Amino acid sequence: MNCYELLNVSRVASTREIKINYRRLISSNNLTGEQFAVIEDAYATLSDDQLRRAYDEQLENENSAPQLAVPVAESSNLV
User: Fold this and answer.
1) How big is the CA angle at 5 (ends 55 and 44), to the nearest 5 degrees?
2) pLDDT tens-digit profile of 16-61?
3) Distance CA 56, CA 13 (A)
4) How many CA atoms are closer than 13 Å to the CA of 20, on its beta-carbon side?
């Protein structure tokens, strides 16, 4: 799960939207210490412009993994 999913916001969410959802999440009384820490880290990443840009870049790189031009099942017919 990525930071945007953790905070339940879209990738184009404003800083204000991120802050509102963060506060809503941490105000929940049933969070464990680990859950709180993960949400805190996600908020720290998305609330800082430089960290958010770097994080978005990292997500883009992960999502743009090279794809095979020919599906594996069809490639066996090429020989």
Assistant:
1) 50
2) 999 999 999 999 878 888 999 999 999 999 999 999 999 999 988 8
3) 12
4) 6
Q: How far is residue 39's CA from residue 61's CA, in Å, rounded to a whole number?
A: 23
Q: Which two tokens stand for residue 36?
A: 């709180």
Q: Are 55 and 3 in contact (CB under 8 A)?
A: yes
Sorted by sequence, the CB contacts under 8 Å of residue 56 that are 6+ apart come out as 11
The tokens of 47 are what? 């609330």
What is the distance between the alpha carbons of residues 40 and 62, in angstroms, rounded to a whole number? 23
Q: Judge contact between 40 and 53, C-beta under 8 A.
A: no
CA gap 33, 57 in Å, rounded: 29
Please tell me what DSSP assigns to residue 69.
S
Q: Both tokens of residue 24? A: 């809503």
